[in-house]
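(Deposited chain)
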Amino acid sequence: MKLEQNNAEFIFNQTPLPDVFFTEYMSEAPGDYIKVYLYLLFLSKYNKEIKINDLSKKISLPLKIIQDAISYWENINVITKKGSDYIVNNLQELELHKLYAPNISLSKDKIENSQIKQSRAKIIEAINTMFFQGIMSTSWYNDIDLWFTKYQFNEDVMLALFRYCFDKSALHKNYVKAVAEAWYTNNIRTFDQLEDYFEKQEKINTIKKSISKKLGLSRQLTQYEEAYIEKWISDYHYNMDIIDIALKKTTSKTNPNFDYIDKILSDWKDKNLSTSDDIKKYLLEFKNKTKKVQELQKKTNYNNYDQRNITNFDNLYANK
């Protein structure tokens, strides 16, 4: 049976969309996924049935994107699969459930009335005013309060967290939480520690750019190459002046790589060489020792001279 509806009716009908969609879901969802959700919401109002292939044609999106979008909304409970059908859930009911479910942290009103957390409440309200134009969703209040406990940030660090994400134009929960995790992992709890962290990151980024330029790399560094650099700076406490000496040792290599540079720097670290002067002195002594060995070989015509302390790093220091 085919049911027909008067098309004129669609001109005057509306599909309601609660504000909570804009505050809680839209900023994190990919644009094509939002397009799929809106059309599903529209169809659900009329209890319409539609196949995924037909939906793909109707809203001009590839079948794979349609499937991924449905999985995305299903995973965050916006839609629920029931047999071969889907139910489009009420977003307002979902948020009410989050607010009043057992064992959830303080709600907005409880935070404001809590004497113990007055300082946190002020910072949360400041976040609301500065970054959400005063219309921050109530679920943010719960999340921020939980993050205070989980990450042990003081109020200044929490405010700085939202300023950082806001400046990155990425003020959505997944990104904010990812940054918070990174700061927590780097032992940031106070604003002084945060400033030290930023200073360290700026130093690392400057050295990364300098290394790329000196090696003539036009591409971005890989994750593993960046890990090497962070090790040299954070673990070995080497500055660019020391790293630059190691980079100069790559001039005799056709395709120098970071593993090669790391072996040189690790050798210096194992020998407790901590300054550029220490390293230059060591290299000079190494050069003189090698020269003496070569001269002795020529005089004695003996090629089995004990070079165990030299041979291992002949390749590293080939361009003397």
User: Anything to note?
Assistant: The chain has three domains: 8-95, 105-189, 195-311. DSSP finds 17 helices and two strands in the chain. Residues 1-6 have pLDDT under 50 and may be disordered. The two ends are 88 Å apart (CA to CA).
